[in-house]
Each structure stands twice: as C-alpha cells, then as structure tokens.
Amino acid sequence: MQHYLSAFRHYADYRGRARRAEYWMFLVFHLLVLAALITLGATVFEEIFSLALVYYLATVIPLTALIARRLHDVGYTGWLQLVSLLPFCFIVVLIFMALPGTPGPNQYGPPA
C-alpha cells in the first residue's frame, strides 16, 4: 500500500528514479482494484463499471510517471514507454520494468 500511495505523492513527477518494488507493487494493487471494480460493475451494479472507468482515468498520469521513473532507474528515457502503443511492443517495456536498476547514480539522479 505504501508504494501505491507513493505513486500518488509523485503524481506527475516524471523526474528521478523508481525501484522495481515500487512499480510492481503499484501495478499489482492497481490491477486488483480495477478488476474488483469491473467485476462488481458486471455482476452487481452498472454504475460501478463507470467507477472503474473513472478510477482508470485518474490513475493514467501517476502510472505513466511511475513508468518513466522506472525506465530512468534502468537507464533509459521515459519516452520509451511510447513504444508500448505499438502492437505487441508493450512486452519490451515490460521486460525493462523487470530489469534491475543501474547501481549508483546515473544521468537521472541517485537511486531511489
């Protein structure tokens, strides 16, 4: 939960670095909340489906900022996440998210 809230504290901060744990824990919690809202919307209340859409739209900016900071930790530019817009190229970005960060400071700052 701490990593999830950390992403919102750095809401639109595309500078700096983010560790693997911060990214993966945010992603797991994000997907669980989204899946719960979609499931409830499909089975119980139709209004909750619109809540899932609102939740997703509210988390787009923190997620892209977190991905950019994670790419900085690996040593790549945050713009590389645009590659995931191409078909099947999101796998490349996913692999970069799993790589360990560069030890010590890099061009994007000291380790987080």
Description:
Helix content is 62%, strand content 0%. The chain is elongated, with a radius of gyration of 15 Å. The chain starts with a helix and ends in a 14-residue tail after the last helix. Keywords: Membrane, Transmembrane, Transmembrane helix.
Morphology call: elongated
The arrangement of helices and strands along the chain is HHHH
Average residue pLDDT: 90
Strands, total number: 0
Distance between the termini: 17 Å
Q: Supply the helix-strand structural class.
A: mainly alpha
| Overall tally of structural domains | 1
Count of helical regions: 4
In this structure, how is the largest beta sheet organized?
A: none
Short description:
The chain has 112 residues and is mainly α.
Keywords for this structure?
single chain; mainly alpha; Inner membrane protein yhaI; membrane; transmembrane; 4 helices; 112 residues; 62% helix; transmembrane helix
What is the strand and helix layout of this fold?
Elements: H1 2-9, H2 20-43, H3 46-74, H4 90-98
